[in-house]
Amino acid sequence: MKFYVITIFPDLIELFANFGIIGRAARSGLIKIEPVNLRDFAYSKHKQTDDEPYGGGPGMIMKPEPPYYAISSVRKADNNTKVILLTPQGREFSQEIAEEFSKEESLCFVCGRYEGFDERIRTMVDSELSIGKYILSGGEIAACAVIDATARLLPGVIGNSESLIAETYGTNPEYPQYTRPAVFKGMEVPQILLSGNHEKIRQWRKEHSYKKGEYK
Ligand code: SAM
C-alpha cells in the first residue's frame, strides 16, 4: 500500500517511516511512504506556502496554489490514490476507518499548518479527516497516526497476525498481560497465568478483558 504525505515538513514523515513496525514494513516493501514537499510546488519567488487572510484576522492561511499543484502531481503519478485533507472538522478517525483504509491501494494526506487552509483547498480533495476533538499545530502527526493504524492491519506487517485479534477494538478485546518477573515490588502475577492450564487461562482472560473506555 502506498501513502503520500503532502507537507512543509517532509523530514518529520521520513523519520516516522524509519522506525519500528512501520520502518520494517517500508524496508520490506509491504508499504511505501512518500513525503511530498509542498514547497516544491510553491512557484512564487520566496516559495511561500502561506499568506494573510482576506478580511483580516490572526495568523496566516495556507495558500491554495501549492496544495493544488502538489495534489495534481500525486494524482498524475497515481490515479488510484484517495486524497484526504487533515482538518479538525473532518470525519473522526477510528479503528473502523483504519480497516476501511487498509483495503485501499493508495492514500494521499494533505497536512495543514498555520491557522488552517484557504477554503478552496477543500474542493481539491476526496474527503476530510480529523484524528480527534483537539487542535494540533499541523497535520503531520495526524497523518502518521492514521498511517500507523492502517498499515498494521495489512497482511504481513505485524509478525504474528493473532495480535490483531486480541486487541481493544479487535474481534476479541485485550486483557491484562504480564511478563517476568513473577513478583515485582510485592506485586504478583495472577497464579492462574503460571499454572500452564490453557483452558483456565483462556477463561481468566475472557473474564478480565477490558471494556472500551475502562481506564480514564
Ligand atoms: N484554525 C484551525 C481550526 O481551528 O480549525 C486549526 C488549524 S491547525 C493549527 C493547523 C493544521 O493542523 C490543520 O489545518 C490540520 O491540517 C492540522 N490539524 C490540527 N488539528 C487536527 C486534528 N484534530 N485532526 C487532523 N488534523 C489536524
Structural write-up:
The mean pLDDT is 95. With 216 residues, the chain is of the alpha/beta class. Strands 2-1-6-5-7 form a five-stranded parallel β-sheet, with helices on both faces. A two-stranded antiparallel ribbon has the order 3-4. Strands 8-9 form a two-stranded antiparallel sheet. The protein has helices at 10-16, 20-27, 65-77, 95-101, 140-151, 198-208, and strands spanning 2-7, 32-37, 50-51, 61-62, 82-92, 106-110, 127-130, 183-184, 187-188. The protein has two domains: 2-151, 3-Layer(aba) Sandwich (Alpha/beta knot); 173-216, tRNA(m1g37)methyltransferase, domain 2 (Trp Operon Repressor, Chain A), CATH 1.10.1270. Residues 86-88, 111-113, 115-117, 130-132, 134-139, 142 line the site of S-adenosylmethionine (SAM).
Features of the shown structure:
216 residues; alpha/beta; Trp Operon Repressor, Chain A; five-stranded parallel β-sheet; two-stranded antiparallel sheet; 9 strands; elongated; binds S-adenosylmethionine
Counted up, domains total: 2
Separate helix tally: 6
Distance between the termini: 34 Å
Mean pLDDT: 95
What's the overall geometry?
elongated
Q: Which CATH architecture of the largest domain?
A: 3-Layer(aba) Sandwich
Q: Quick one: CATH class of the largest domain?
A: Alpha Beta
Secondary structure tally: strands: 9
Radius of gyration: 22 Å
The H/E string reads EHHEEEHEHEEHEEH
Going by helix content, strand content and strand pairing, the class is: alpha/beta
Strand order across the largest sheet: 2-1-6-5-7
User: Per CATH, what is the topology of the largest domain?
Assistant: Alpha/beta knot
Provide the CATH superfamily of the largest domain: SPOUT methyltransferase, trefoil knot domain
Assess the beta-strand content as a share of residues.
Answer: 15-25%
The major beta sheet can be summarized as:
5 strands, parallel
